[in-house]
């Protein structure tokens, strides 16, 4: 009997959005507190996107409520990453989706207490599988800040190829940094 690759699932699998460690689900209004606490981690915010002005608890509640009611816009979507034990671990998004050209970008944020447990990698595999095998996308891209060593290692572990470098693209911590562009083709995902 052939052993399946980590991103493969048997045909009798009930939920395409669930793996061995995490499931992807809509953001819920009651998730506000975990996202609010996560936003207090300036280092993680810088690695994911940027450090923004502080948001009030009411603002976090409103953000979660808005995302909880939001449907995908085209193929752009944001989902919560939840462990199979039911603990919120972060979020993942697909954006810049072009069904016509068959490409999309993704971003993943895992809260610090859940780092280095394989949750981000599995969440990305679930998202890639859906976009490649259900929506017929041909390629995925990830933009990674040059100082984000964890994300660079994740992209390479998932089989993404470094395709370009945008010099002095990101300003944070008083310094300009490069941004790396990684890409993965559907055929590379199915062979990984």
UniProtKB/TrEMBL annotation:
Gene3D superfamilies: 3.40.630.30. Coiled coil: none annotated. Residues 22-187 form the N-acetyltransferase domain. It comes from the Bacteria. One of its GO terms (molecular function) is protein N-terminal-serine acetyltransferase activity. One of its GO terms (cellular component) is cytoplasm. PANTHER family: ACETYLTRANSFERASE (PTHR43441:SF10), RIBOSOMAL-PROTEIN-SERINE ACETYLTRANSFERASE (PTHR43441). This is GNAT family N-acetyltransferase. It comes from Paenibacillus sabuli.
């Amino acid at each position: 009997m052939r052993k399946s690759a980590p991103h493969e699932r048997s045909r009798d699998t009930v939920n395409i959005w669930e793996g061995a460690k995490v499931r992807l689900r809509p953001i819920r209004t009651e998730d506000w507190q975990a996202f609010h606490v996560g936003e207090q981690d300036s280092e993680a915010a810088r690695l994911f996107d940027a450090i923004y002005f502080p948001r009030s608890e009411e603002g976090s509640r409103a953000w979660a409520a808005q995302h909880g009611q939001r449907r995908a816009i085209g193929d752009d979507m944001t989902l919560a990453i939840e462990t199979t034990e039911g603990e919120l671990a972060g979020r993942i998004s697909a954006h810049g989706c072009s069904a016509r050209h068959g490409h999309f970008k993704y971003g993943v944020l895992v809260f610090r207490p859940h780092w280095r447990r394989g949750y981000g990698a599995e969440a990305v595999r679930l998202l890639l599988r859906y976009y490649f095998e259900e929506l017929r996308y041909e390629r995925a891209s990830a933009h990674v800040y040059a100082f984000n060593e964890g994300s660079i290692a994740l992209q390479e572990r998932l089989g993404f190829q470094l395709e370009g470098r945008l010099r002095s693209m990101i300003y944070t911590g008083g310094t300009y940094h490069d941004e790396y562009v990684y890409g993965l083709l559907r055929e590379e995902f199915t062979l990984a």
